[in-house]
Fold:
Amino acid sequence: MRDAVTSLIRNYDSIGRYLDRDALDTLKSYFASGTARVRVAAVINGNASAIVKQAGSRLFEDIPELIRPGGNAYTTRRYAACLRDMDYYLRYASYALVAGSMDVLDERVLQGLRETYNSLGVPIGSTVIGIQIMKEIVKEQVAAAGIENASIVDQPFDYMARELAEKDI
Ligand code: CYC
Structure:
């Protein structure tokens, strides 16, 4: 698992070079957004269960078939599994935000996930919508907390959504 700094060092070490201008710019922008990253993580940590609950309600409002007989989130067990998955996405998004790297998402969340979802009939399109809804809720809360530089929030949610959806054959 890597963060923005360890990824950079690893790349430069592999070619035996000192950190050049590009590397220093990357580092500067990571450190400049550091306070915002930590503050966003604090907003997520402090509101995680409410965010997941609200996102679930919006998702099932938008796509009510999911919780009707035959829907993938029908039955209490699957409903709970769906909210649990949303909670995973939120928690790992907060890690990726702090790390300034999507590596943790690849390693801990996305690896093999599509295959699992496909074999269980979990609809990927609806999951992607759920991830986007969570992103919007987090952005609302981040804006309400007066955090500037909040553009960093999109990245992990968009990354998970894209990786889940795009590789769908
Ligand atoms: C199931 N979600 C699963 C399963 C895994 C994950 C492994 C199968 C095993 C289980 O039921 O627990 C996902 N597990 C993860 C992830 C991690 C992990 C991401 C990384 C930390 O360890 N169904 C819907 C909605 C969606 C949904 C669109 C919620 C957004 O209709 C989710 N996931 C869902 C459901 C199941 C599931 C309903 C249960 C499916 C079943 O057993 O039939």
